[in-house]
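Problem: given the chain below (165 residues), write out its structure.
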Amino acid sequence: MKRENLRMMVEGSIMIALALGFGIISKSLGLSLPQGGDISIASLPIIVFALRNGFKEGVGVGVTYSILNFITDQNKFFHPVSIICDYLLIGIFLGVFGIKGKIHIKFILIYLAIFLSHFISGVAVFGSFAPEGMNKLLYSFLYNISYVLPEAIIIATILFLFSKF
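Solution.
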């Protein structure tokens, strides 16, 4: 095995462990919502890995993180749409940060895709949790924006601060 491949595998493993740890910390601090989703910096290590190592490796680490996150997650919704939209696609989207391009454009597009993925899952799977009389589209929008937007702002701020160093 080449030294560079070994370094990348070790770095990817560390970033996955950090992401899972950050997720556990946010849940233990009560930053998670009843039907899933939380305000966390768990995606930050995956984003950093993808930025450092590229698209292909970023997607690999992102998908691995998503699978492990699903396995260890306390909110067990085994609906196929939820598994795909709330876990698998999110890992792929985080790995897309490895594509060359302007970080701020990628960030906006990727976090929009992350929101839409959660939104679709919310409409398809979690719409039944909407309060009586509330449209499930509106419910999914409000529910998912309540944690995706703050998380995106926090991660964008951290990435901006990192870029200054």
